[in-house]
Specification:
eight-stranded mixed sheet; 6 helices; six-stranded mixed sheet; 2 domains; single chain; elongated; mainly beta; about 500 residues
């Protein structure tokens, strides 16, 4: 199965997938999500914060900003060559500093007085091994990371110092993490919940490490997704979250507390009653495509059940059996001795489902939406998954009325996370899709053509999510399956954040 296009949104999905492979995270994801962000020119190396201000750190200066207004109130003075991360300690902002990329390496900790904003040396390491990129205070000790780059980055290490700056112990990093860093090292780090969180140079993930005093190597415990792209970061005393930077965008991001979400793969597919463009009726071909995509939730349209044109076969039952997924059917019309409508397949149990008929104008075909409540194991509440298929005629009056009814129906959903998927028979420029976007987040921002399946030119098949704050979209792609149906399937990988069960 070929992927026509992969659209990466929230972060470098390919990097995260590689990390997930060795972290064995499966579908559970831990994420820090942005609560507030500011565009600031000094967002180049790191950020830190106290109750009233946040601090953006560039290589040569530290800028102080009012966290309520976002206005810059002061800039540091004093010499600096290569500042890195920063932490607040005893009324000072302490930053790692090095002479990178010069040789031999020289590292020190620079103190910024928060009242005068003057920089001065807090501690000097003289001839250090590696370049200091971050320092934290924990358990009455100083913890410092010294970085090596390029082919030597495996020599990077974490050192623990006592009050008199005597080195007590040092740890290397696991090979599995070093391999993900390319030519770089770890740019930021903090202690959090009894373990070390560390960031790389560019990728928006944090590595979790346990510190074992009886080992010379830190123990890798997994990853957490962040909105900031590597570099230095710090804990935020107000939100209980983190503050960091998106270097390329010159932004400071402030997060809320760590959230746990469920990652899922969602497909929408108009299967053309399982008759392909080659004229062959083959529900097994549809099932194979679904299976190969590893979809957890599937919205199907144009599903026949026991009609004469499919020789009385129950297509949905056959596909569900082959994919080993739970299923539900929503009849739109009686047709050819059987039923025709929408369907849903789900890896998780479907607690209940209902079919809601949509507006019908000028003797058009009756359309509907199938609404299913899907239970997610270990969560207080599940999600709602909807499969629909709107009118195909050139006059969009019925489609627009249907969209208005869909929006109205789910305004009463008490903010339950919802996925709406289907064949909307309209493009992103249409007033119907624009009306949906007032309430929903589309899982792709670029157009991904889905019809005709052999040489697609238009996208009319979409996946939408609501409320937007409950969902993160990781990627959306269209599968290159030109024979199985006259539409191509759309597949999105998303994360939803649900409360854990009591």
């Amino acid at each position: 199965m070929n992927r026509i296009l992969t659209l990466t949104l929230a972060f470098s999905f390919s990097v995260l997938i590689a990390l997930v492979d060795f972290a064995s995270c499966e579908e559970v994801v831990h994420r820090w999500r942005t609560q507030q962000q500011w565009a600031v020119p000094e967002a180049h190396q790191a950020a830190a914060a106290d109750e009233k201000f946040f601090y953006a750190i560039s290589s040569r200066e530290i800028a102080k900003y009012d966290r309520k207004t976002g206005e810059r109130v002061a800039v540091s003075s004093g010499p600096a060559e290569h500042l890195n991360s920063g932490i607040l300690w005893n009324g000072q902002l302490l930053s790692a500093h090095s002479n990178y990329p010069k040789k031999p390496e020289e590292s020190r900790i620079v103190s910024c007085d928060l009242e005068t904003m003057k920089l001065k040396t807090f501690h000097e390491f003289l001839e250090s091994e590696g370049s200091l990129t971050w320092v934290v205070r924990h358990d009455d000790h100083w913890w410092c990371h010294f970085a090596f780059y390029g082919p030597e980055n495996a020599k990077s290490y974490l050192a623990k110092f006592d009050e008199n700056w005597n080195e007590v112990q040092r740890w290397n990093y696991p090979d599995s993490v070093i391999q993900q860093l390319g030519n770089y090292s770890l740019s930021g780090g903090i202690w959090h919940s009894g373990e070390i969180l560390a960031s790389g140079h560019d990728d928006p993930v944090l590595f979790r490490f346990a510190v074992d005093p009886n080992s010379k190597t830190l123990t890798f415990r997994g990853i957490q997704a962040t909105p900031f792209s590597g570099q230095g970061f710090a804990s935020d005393p107000v939100t209980g979250g983190l503050i960091g930077i998106h270097r390329r965008n010159k932004e400071v991001h402030l997060t809320g507390p760590l959230e746990t979400g469920i990652r899922m793969t969602v497909m929408t597919y108009n299967i053309h009653h399982a008759e392909g463009t080659d004229g062959v009726l083959d529900p097994s071909r549809i099932a194979n495509i679904i299976r190969s995509s590893n979809a957890d939730l599937v919205a199907l349209q144009e599903v026949d059940r026991k009609t004469t044109r499919v020789d009385g076969r129950d297509l949905l039952a056959e596909i569900a059996t082959e994919t080993k997924l739970h299923f539900a059917f929503g009849k739109s019309i009686e047709f050819s001795g059987g039923e025709y409508g929408n369907a849903i397949l789900s890896r998780w149990p479907i607690e209940n489902h209902q079919t809601a008929l949509l507006p019908r104008l000028n003797d058009g075909e009756q359309r509907s939406m199938l609404i299913a409540d899907v239970a997610i194991e270990g969560k207080e509440s599940g999600i709602t998954f909807v499969s629909t298929h709107l009118d195909h005629r050139s006059d969009d009056a019925e489609r627009f009325l249907s969209v208005e009814q869909i929006n109205s129906h789910f305004e009463k959903s008490n903010k339950t996370p919802i996925l709406l998927a289907g064949d909307f028979n309209d493009t992103t420029s249409s007033r119907s899709v624009k009306e949906l976007l007032k309430k929903w987040k589309m899982t792709n921002t670029d157009v991904l053509p889905t019809i005709p399946s052999r040489k697609p030119t238009r996208q009319i098949d979409f996946i939408f999510a609501s409320p937007p704050t409950a969902w993160e979209v990781l990627s959306t792609r269209v599968l290159n399956e030109p024979k199985a149906s006259d539409h191509l399937p759309v597949v999105s990988t998303v994360e939803v954040f649900l409360k854990p069960a009591n």
